[in-house]
Amino acid sequence: LLELCTYGLLLCWTVRYFGLELDWDRKLLESRVAFTYHEFTTWLRTVTLPLVGVAFLSLSWEILVAMYRCACVRGCFWKLWATLQWAIMATATVGLFAVSLVPFTYIEHESNGKLWPGIHQMFGAVERFQVVNSYGLFRRMTGVGGRPEVILEGSYDGHSWTEIEFMYKPGNVSAAPAVVAPHQPRLDWQLWFAALGPHQGSPWFSALVLRLLQGQPD
């Protein structure tokens, strides 16, 4: 029942905060972001530390269950051996959990500042080993406040210019994004990084423009 209630609440919140509306005439599911940036940051501030508490309780339960299993082992020697293993694994797990709280709370700086200073010191001591880190290959996406894009335009007369649309690079906001997986559109991918710095950092881009001016199909 608790699990069903949780899924129900998630569904209700998704419909409410993402403005889900079903258009029966066009058979489309429309959505929009129905919350502000301030509301989002307030929500993050509210749930981040409680989530840490829930995770700590869950970890504590697993450690206690493992300790109980050690007590159920028969034989004095094997019980001592199981207890030694439990102590080593529990210490390592608690240590990893503690240092992982630093990158976990990066998403909300106020919560990150409320962590015990000793945890920050532990994280600083092992950071170079990359034992823990924030989840995701691109955990910090570029352009959250406005992503830069390289726009190429072409003209036959030098007066009227038309944007050159790529197959996969973000362009027309009214067009649905193309499905690329498992294909890797290398040129479109590199244009993302070319927009993040000066043209000297992407010498291939000048060659691309030159080939376009020469009209080379390749």
Automatic annotation (TrEMBL):
The keyword Glycoprotein applies. One of its GO terms (biological process) is protein maturation. Pfam families: LMF1_C. It comes from the Eukaryota. The keyword Membrane applies. GO terms for cellular component: endoplasmic reticulum membrane. Residues 131-218 form the Lipase maturation factor 1/2 C-terminal domain. Keywords: Glycoprotein, Membrane, Transmembrane, Transmembrane helix. The chain crosses the membrane at residues 47-68, 80-104. PANTHER family: LIPASE MATURATION FACTOR (PTHR14463), LIPASE MATURATION FACTOR 2 (PTHR14463:SF5). This is Lipase maturation factor 2.
